Amino acid sequence: xxxxxxxxxxxxxxxxxxxxxxxxxxxxxxxxxxxxxxxxxxxxxxxxxxxxxxxxxxxxxxxxxxxxxxxxxxxxxxxxxx
Length: 82
Description:
Elements: E1 2-7, E2 24-27, H1 33-37, E3 50-53, H2 57-69, E4 72-77
Antiparallel strand pairs: 1-3, 1-4, 2-3
């Protein structure tokens, strides 16, 4: 499961603040950012501040708490099926 988090704050909180997160965190300056944010519909061009690649329920909980605590909006993107 991939959780995409979009912030409207001017300051980016530190991803190190996501306590207990075991998955992969991808920010806009990461080399894999454009690949990670791509969706099948090429007309959609979203640029989230942070992409959290969750590997389990605990990661989803940590990412949602982090977003809530930092006044961020969340969009969920599932994958691996049609």
